[in-house]
Design brief:
The structure is a single chain. The protein is of the alpha+beta class and 240 residues long. The chain has one domain (7-237): 3-Layer(aba) Sandwich (Protein Transport Mog1p, Chain A), CATH 3.40.1000. It is 29% helix and 32% strand. The protein has a nine-stranded antiparallel β-sheet, with helices on both faces. It starts with 6 loop residues before the first helix and ends with a helix. Residues 1-22 form the signal peptide.
Length: 240
């Protein structure tokens, strides 16, 4: 099974409204053509990226919606009562987690991992439109979130920053958002640990295509993520 982010790190990113998609009604875009709006006749499971379509070196690994829900639930329990700054981001994070459960229940998912680089890929295709304007608003409201966790071993501080990125030009006419999440954890006097993730969401043809790329070692390559996200969306756009 693919190894997902640690509970605390995942929880911090969820608090920043950064990792998972939020259920809702997507806004309409008058610039969309018939191809972008026509309902799909192909099963969503068949439109997920194949192993050959992931970057060279990445191998498909087992991951399920149940896995994603389990990790998110574990993170929520681990972070219960942990102080969050700004305080309102705790509420936003909780609301997003609650709504995400319903959306994930109707999603198809695929995972892949590159053992050499440590890159971990997760793609989902949900059967309804996510509210991308709300995600963007939440990201802006919680663009920088700090959490402090104290236990018997000491104090750990988590700082999460969310930065909106430019949507690939190839996706012009499609409702989409792309962002980078930087997570910094500091434990006592130890050297801070930093991780960078990339996330993209696109709403088209009545579904939401989402791609999340993280790494267990070096930061993921942004240009590689951009190409893969574009490929994932194009696969749905061109499908029957």
């Amino acid at each position: 099974m693919i190894k997902l982010c640690g509970a605390a790190r995942l929880g911090a990113m969820i608090m920043a409204a950064g990792v998972v998609i939020v259920a809702g009604c997507g806004s309409n875009d008058d610039s969309m053509g018939a191809t972008e709006t026509a309902p799909l006749s192909t099963a969503r499971e068949q439109l997920l990226l194949t192993e050959q379509e992931f970057p060279a070196g990445a191998k498909r690994e087992e991951v399920s919606i149940a896995d994603l829900l389990e990790v998110a639930e574990f993170a929520a329990e681990a972070l219960e009562g942990v102080p969050v700054t700004p305080p309102d981001c705790a509420r936003i994070g909780q609301e997003d987690r609650d709504q995400t459960k319903d959306l994930l229940a109707q999603s198809a998912v695929v995972g892949a991992k590159d053992e050499r680089s440590g890159a971990v890929y997760t793609e989902t295709i949900a059967g309804s439109a996510a509210d991308l304007s709300r995600i963007s608003a939440d990201n802006q409201a919680c663009s920088e979130v700090t959490m402090t966790h104290v236990d018997e071993g000491g104090t750990t501080t988590y700082l999460t920053k969310v930065e909106a990125l430019t949507v690939p030009a190839a996706l012009k006419g499609i409702e989409a958002i792309v962002y980078r999440t930087t997570s910094i954890s500091t434990y006592g006097e130890r050297k801070p640990s930093t991780s960078i993730d990339y996330t993209g969401h696109a709403v088209l043809r009545g579904v939401t295509v989402s791609l999340h790329v993280s790494s267990e070692r070096d930061a993921p390559n942004e240009s590689s993520f951009t190409k893969l996200f574009t490929d994932a969306v194009d696969k749905v756009r061109k499908a029957a």
